[in-house]
Description:
This protein is of the alpha+beta class. Helices cover 28% and strands 15% of the residues. Strands 1-2-3 form a three-stranded antiparallel sheet. It is elongated. The two termini are 21 Å apart.
Amino acid sequence: MPKMKTKSSAKKRFRVRPGGTVKRGHAFKRHILTKKTTKNKRQLRGVAAVHETNMGHMAQMLPKCGL
Length: 67
């Protein structure tokens, strides 16, 4: 039986917290920032948690993390 591989793109974008939740960064914060409002850019700071409805996909992409 071959080993299960972790998706490299998911490995770079997500981190599994000790409680089992997954943290992610916000989208729309990388470029074309001049037309976005200061309020919008400020609210995109920090990290967010992956929604529980997407945790099945996370378990498939990150099999070694025990999700």
